[in-house]
Structures are given as C-alpha cells and as structure tokens.
Design goal:
The protein has about 350 residues and is mainly β. The protein contains 3 helices and 27 strands. The protein folds into 3 domains: about 10-115, no CATH class; about 120-240, no CATH class; about 245-350, no CATH class.
C-alpha cells in the first residue's frame, strides 16, 4: 500500500518567518523549521506598517542577473532596488535597508517556497521554449517566457508532470497588466474564468485568458489576453498542483456562523489563503508563525498594502487543526453564505509516510 505522503517534513519546501527590521544592511532572516530552506520564491509583507507585498524569485535573479521584484498588490512591472533584497541564504534570506522589508523596529512576515535552488531548464512542451524551475515532489514550478503573436493561442510548458491546479501570471514589462489567477475550483468550468491576485474582484468569465481550455500535465493554455501573452514581452508564472500531505487547492461554502465550516486539507496547515469567488472579497492570508496557537487571528491580504489586523472583534478567525482548518467567525471575507477558494500549505501531514498521525495544536 502506498504511503500517505511522500513529504514527512513540509518545512523542507515551505516556511514562514517573522522578524523585526533593524534598518541596516545585511539583515539576515533565518528560518526555524525542522529543515534548512533556501527559498526560491520569497514573498514578504510588513505587519506593523503599511507596505507592499514584495515578491522575489531565484528564476528572475538567474534570468536578469539582477535582484528584480514585483509588488503583488499592484500592477507595477519588474523593478530593481539595491536598498531592498540582498541574497537567498542557506536557511533564509538577507535584506538591505529598505522600509518595505527592513525598517527599524517594524515587524514583518516572509513566506518562502523551495523549488530547485535556482536551477532552470528549457521546456519545449508548448508553443515556445519556456525557462522552467520545477520541483515535482513539492508540486511547484516557476515559469518564465516571452509572449508571441496574441492572435494565436499559446501553450506554455510548466514541467510539473501533473495537471496544475493553481497558478498566477504577471507581465514583467507591460505597465498596468494584471496578476491573472487560475484556480481549479473557481467554477465548474474553471478554464472559462480568471481572478486577479491584486484586487478583490470575483471570478470573471473571459475566454481570452485561458481560452476555455483546461490545462494538462504538460501545458498551461492561454489566449489572446495581453496580460498573459503579448509578442516580445516577458512574463512570469508560478504554478502548483496538490501534493497529499503538503498542499491543497480547494473550495468550501461558508455558513455565516461563528461555528463555521470545517475544511479538510489532509494536513495541519502552516499557511492558508482564502478568497470568496464573488466580487468584493479580499484574499485573506493566515499562517502559523504570526499565530502559533489557535485561534489564528492576524490577517494580511495580497490585494492590500494595509498593516496586519489582529483585533479582538470583526476578524476572520480560524483554527488550524491536525487535518485542516475550521472557520471561527462570521466575517464576510472567510465565512458567509458563498463559495470560497483556498490555497494551503502544510506544517505537518495528517499521517506520516510511516503511519504516525499528527496531533492538533
């Protein structure tokens, strides 16, 4: 019989870290998980102060020879700022003096994914050659590509070896282009719909994004929308597929009750992002470092630069359990009578590869 999971220690592939800025150069942030993790995707956000959601990755670092970043809550293109990021380290990362990530006395959180150590390969599964950094064990891929004539459909090779369930794409060169999101539970026919990571907009029908064709185990299909395909323009795509015991991309229906829905993931969550598929609901992000004990209270949003909110009322409470999460608030962004999609990564699998169960916290 196959093991429940192939990943007994999720901290080898995902970790969240909290830290306080010191305003100086060479500010090293060191992870404290069971495994060392040198990130290939780094997303950090101010907690005590309003800052942009900043996103770095080792594929763009390799591709451009510069430390380029994107801001998740805006449509800005690739930027370089020598006062921000310094390096990906063997168990974390280092920052310079910029206030988005290292203002003296301010608090921050960083979410980090391990992919393939910055090693990329050419992928020819699609209509063009993509540069792919992939970790099939963890179900994660970073894809960079240059668009072609948007009159033609575009197939993009992703390298996952499984059908991707969640991805987001951003133009690196065209100002004002959106963060296009695909989630396989956004609709009964998700390839006909898209969301935007930088807004609270609901899932919208548009054949021009994914051309109404489902992804496959080798390709992501895009249409003539220039947010995802314009001739001679560069793009970045981050794609995931569920891995039992490590990641899950699902949906649930809220009940508008403080005794809220229970959502089974098959692991104790380390990180959960939730979005109502109707218009006006924020992408709410919770993790196990900002709230190491239940209830999980402090919230941030991919579509907002606001500081973290951790008040005693009017919040999007949830509990992280050994096999999923449970909503503990009737707040609209996580638990009213609509459908929500979620993205979750594990702290521990529900059952290890040797059959040992995980306990709730």
């Amino acid at each position: 019989m196959a093991a429940y999971t192939t990943i007994d220690d999720p901290s080898a592939f995902f970790q969240a870290a909290i830290y306080t800025g010191n305003g100086g150069s060479d500010r090293a942030v060191v992870n404290d998980g069971n495994s060392n993790l040198q990130p290939d995707i780094l997303w950090y956000k101010g907690r005590s102060n309003a800052t942009s959601n900043i996103l770095y990755d080792s594929s763009r670092e390799h591709d451009s020879g510069e430390n380029k970043f994107l801001t998740v809550n805006t449509t800005a293109i690739d930027k370089t700022d020598a006062q921000m990021f310094e390096s990906f380290d063997t168990d974390g990362f280092s920052l310079n003096t910029d206030g988005d990530g290292n203002a003296n006395g301010n608090t921050y959180v960083a979410w980090q994914w391990k992919v393939n150590g910055g090693t990329i390969a050419n992928n020819t599964d699609g209509d063009l050659t993509t540069s792919v950094q992939v970790n099939q064990e963890a179900g994660c891929s970073i894809i960079t590509y240059t668009g072609i004539d948007p009159i033609e459909p575009l197939d993009i090779g992703h390298g996952l070896g499984a059908v991707p369930e969640f991805w987001f794409i951003k133009s690196r060169q065209i100002a004002s282009k959106q963060w296009g999101v695909y989630h396989h539970k956004s609709n009964a026919v998700p390839q006909n719909y898209y969301l935007t990571l930088h807004t609270s907009n609901g899932a919208a029908a548009a054949s021009s994004w994914w051309r109404n064709e489902a992804p496959t185990s080798t390709i992501i299909k895009t249409g003539e929308q220039d947010d995802v395909n314009r001739a001679a323009s560069n793009y970045i795509c981050y794609a995931w597929t569920s891995v039992q015991g490590f990641s899950k991309f699902g949906k649930y229906v809220g009940n508008a009750n403080e005794d809220g829905a229970f959502v089974y993931t098959g692991f104790k969550p380390a990180w959960v992002m939730v979005k109502g598929i109707s218009n006006g609901y924020h992408w709410r992000i919770h993790d196990n470092t900002r709230d190491p004990d239940n209830e999980v209270i402090e919230r941030l949003s991919s579509n907002s630069s606001d500081a973290a909110y951790a008040g005693t009322s009017g919040n999007d409470y949830m509990d992280f359990l050994s096999n999923g999460f449970k909503l503990r608030s009737s707040r609209s962004d996580t638990n009213v009578n609509i459908t929500y999609i979620y993205i979750a990564f594990a702290e521990n699998p529900f059952v290890t590869s040797t059959g040992i169960p995980t306990t709730a916290r």
